[in-house]
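Weekly sync, protein design subgroup
Attendees: M.S., D.O., the rotation student, P.L. (late)

Item 1: inverse folding check
M.S. brought a backbone from last month's batch and wanted to see whether the design step gives back something sensible before we order anything. D.O. pointed out we never logged the input encoding, so this time it goes straight into the notes. Structure tokens as presented (405 positions):
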């Protein structure tokens, strides 16, 4: 156990942590903060909900407090894949920097461009941004990153998945080359990581509760289904069985997400949905209702829900199987946060079974089979799955015994 008071942090940061009720550092914070304070580039693999935002923000604030530079340009830049995650990060910044004069600015899509230009002219100490909108400002000469001291790439794997590798490189080229670089990702084995590896100089690699081996506090189950209509009935039954106040449901497509949200509302549940085609204000309104316990069920696509930091989500249901092991890790990481217990249930039809099996192999776990009384599927799984849950290999041919002489 590491207390924040045992780390070399400024008294104003300790004061902010005390006010927020944080006394004990998480595993990732205890390991990463000293490394970052040492000035070295780091690449960190850590599961969702491990406290990584404070792990990079606290040493950044400590650095800026230790050496005041009032006449420089922006000193810190935090890049994130989605608007929701950027907004959450800004809230965390406001909490941790509450007793300092260090200011932040937000650059995301869906917000007034001219207001962002005016904010950039004031040279805030820290910019929190999504890559797409920030590139627009760089192209128009609105930014000043020549004095940048720290560049953070948070959820780098998701930014790579979203096609932001070139944007990240462009932003790095527009920044002070003598900066410190901090990369955080659910996995450091992402196939696109080689595209941004050169941005870091001799980084210290830290794998802390990596996504593929973490989440031991989350119970993972699977329920067999025949089709989407059957899945809708299973979903309603599971929500009723579990009797929880906050359920997050994941779909792979916007159309499926919206349709399911409407079905749940028709069934008199307090439910709503978010996906990428909704405006920023609409998504923010829905998320606030979910956060304030005015919604029981939130249906979301992966992109829209990326970076959600909402407490007390007791159950995650995958209406459709995730498209990759990393996506599955990020989905289930919405529950069981801060070492609390959580549950994740995946609904699986015949077409999705191979993908689910692939995710199980990636995570090195087996999802516990679960049946819903009265709603058992006609589909029983592949014929070559043994009762033990292991897929049987091809049968060995019997050798013909030579006749006895």
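Designed sequence read out in the meeting:
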């Amino acid at each position: 156990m590491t207390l924040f008071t045992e780390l070399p942090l400024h008294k104003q940061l300790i004061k902010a942590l005390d006010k927020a009720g944080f006394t004990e550092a998480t595993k990732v914070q205890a390991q990463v903060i000293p490394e970052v304070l040492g000035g070295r580039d780091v690449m960190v693999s850590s599961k969702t909900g491990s406290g990584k935002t404070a792990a990079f923000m606290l040493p950044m604030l400590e650095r800026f407090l230790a050496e005041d530079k009032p006449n420089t340009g922006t000193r810190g830049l935090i890049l994130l894949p989605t608007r929701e995650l950027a907004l959450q990060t800004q809230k965390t910044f406001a909490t941790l920097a509450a007793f300092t004069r260090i200011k932040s600015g937000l650059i995301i899509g869906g917000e007034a461009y001219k207001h962002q230009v005016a904010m950039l002219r004031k040279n805030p100490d820290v910019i929190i941004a999504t890559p797409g909108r920030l590139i627009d400002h760089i192209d128009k000469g609105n930014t000043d990153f020549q004095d940048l001291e720290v560049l953070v790439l948070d959820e780098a794997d998701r930014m790579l998945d979203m096609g932001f590798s070139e944007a990240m490189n462009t932003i790095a080229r527009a920044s002070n080359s003598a900066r410190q670089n901090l990369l955080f990702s659910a996995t450091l084995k992402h196939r696109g990581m080689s595209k941004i590896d050169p941005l870091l100089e001799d980084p210290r690699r830290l794998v802390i509760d990596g996504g593929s081996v973490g989440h031991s506090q989350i119970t993972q189950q699977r329920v067999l289904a025949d089709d989407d209509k059957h899945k809708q009935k299973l979903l309603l039954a599971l929500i009723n069985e579990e009797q929880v106040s906050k359920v997050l449901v994941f779909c792979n497509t916007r159309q499926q997400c919206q349709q399911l949200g409407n079905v749940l509302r028709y069934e008199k549940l307090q439910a709503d949905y978010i996906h990428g085609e909704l405006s920023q204000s609409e998504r923010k309104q829905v998320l606030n209702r979910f956060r304030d316990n005015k919604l029981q069920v939130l249906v979301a696509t992966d992109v829209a829900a990326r970076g959600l930091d909402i407490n007390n989500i007791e159950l995650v249901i995958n209406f459709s199987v995730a498209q990759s092991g990393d996506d599955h890790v990020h989905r289930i990481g919405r529950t069981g946060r801060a070492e609390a217990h959580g549950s994740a249930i995946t609904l699986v039809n015949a077409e999705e079974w191979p993908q689910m099996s692939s995710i199980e192999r990636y995570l090195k776990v087996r999802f516990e089979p679960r049946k819903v009384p009265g709603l058992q599927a006609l589909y029983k799984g592949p014929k070559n799955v043994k009762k033990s849950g292991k897929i049987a290999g091809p049968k060995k041919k019997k050798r013909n015994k030579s006749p006895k002489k």
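Discussion: Confidence is low (pLDDT under 50) at residues 386-399, 401-405. The first strand starts at residue 2 and ends at 3.
Action: P.L. to compare against the previous round before Friday.
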